[in-house]
Design goal:
Strand order of the largest sheet: 2-9-8-3-4-6-5-7
Shape: globular
Strand content: 15-25%
Order of helices and strands: EEHEHEHEEEHEHEHE
Number of strands: 10
Radius of gyration: 19 Å
Number of domains: 1
Structural class: alpha/beta
Largest sheet: 8 strands, mixed
CATH architecture: 3-Layer(aba) Sandwich
CATH class: Alpha Beta
Length: about 290
């Protein structure tokens, strides 16, 4: 069984990384308390804007406007950049969406009831009904303007993508995974992720989606995370996921001999990740932010 320790901390107390750890609380608040250059690699997928309701106060993704959503993520990744080693890499998965046509709700999908939304944001200024919002690139360019080096856009092709009922456009079957660095020169082990024929890794990754029991929403497939961790960290390094969810990044990091630091706002997901990692980890620290 997993031993879940409770630690009360003050808002001014710094956080020290000691072995693998899960922090419960707001990503920006907890990143603010982490030391400089504490992790070698960040692999994460923040909540998407206006697509899911995690039913918890303070959640990212329910901002009234798209600029507010992007600003909150910029603030998180500004702190993440400070916490990342100077030669470290951020791997950022972010999905896109279409404008709602100012419909303030979304009906449940028969195949995926969790897609229902009681509240949906209005169409962003400058966009039209049915417009693709371009959120991944808007965020990537915002981070580039903040000083990140935008090194690669990887297409995550989903061979088992969920069907769509649309008849006036192609079915979307991909997401973006951006590779961003803190410095012009950084640690990157290309040999560790060569393709089977020995050639350099290409920028289109064909990886099936994969759920996890107990998680109500889509989770990172381990095969998407593994090359990121292999290429940008060494055994014993820290891998950070500030939107830890069900803990897939932690599970893959541990399997590859790395330490992990996960931050998750939702207590149900903290418990899910802790239970998932309990087979390998005997101590999970739960921080009351």
């Amino acid at each position: 069984m997993c031993s879940l320790k409770i630690e009360k901390i003050t808002k001014t107390k710094g956080l020290k990384l000691a072995d693998s750890v899960i922090f419960e609380g707001d990503a920006l608040t907890l990143l603010n308390r982490m030391p400089n250059e504490a992790v070698q690699c960040i692999v994460t997928s923040p909540p998407y804007w206006g697509l899911r309701d995690y039913a918890i106060p303070g959640q990212i993704g329910h901002e009234p406007t798209l600029p507010q959503f992007l600003y909150r993520l910029q603030a998180v990744f500004t702190e993440a950049r400070r916490v990342l080693a100077n030669d470290g890499i951020l791997w950022l998965n972010i999905g896109d969406g279409y404008t709602s046509g100012n419909r303030g709700w979304r009906a449940p999908d028969k195949k995926n009831p969790a897609r229902a939304m009681r509240i949906r944001p209005e169409t962003p200024q400058g966009l039209k009904s049915k417009d693709l919002q371009g959120i991944p690139w808007r965020l990537a360019f915002a981070l580039q303007d903040d000083g990140w080096y935008l090194r690669a856009d990887i297409i995550w092709n989903k061979p088992n993508a969920m069907p769509e009922s649309v008849k006036d456009r192609p079915t979307r079957a991909h997401e973006y995974l951006f590779m961003l660095t803190k410095s012009e020169k950084y640690y990157y082990d290309r040999q560790s992720i060569l393709e089977p024929n020995g050639r350099n890794r290409r920028s289109v990754w064909n990886i099936h989606t994969q759920g996890f029991p107990g998680a109500h929403f889509a989770t990172f497939p381990p095969k998407l995370i593994e090359p990121c961790i292999r290429a940008s960290s060494r055994p014993g390094d820290y891998v950070l996921d500030p939107f830890f969810g069900s803990g897939t990044t932690g599970a893959v990091a541990h399997r590859l001999g790395r330490k992990y630091a996960g931050i998750e706002l939702h207590p149900d997901y903290v418990a899910l990740a802790a239970a998932r990692l309990a087979a390998d980890e005997s101590a999970v620290v739960r921080i009351a932010a």
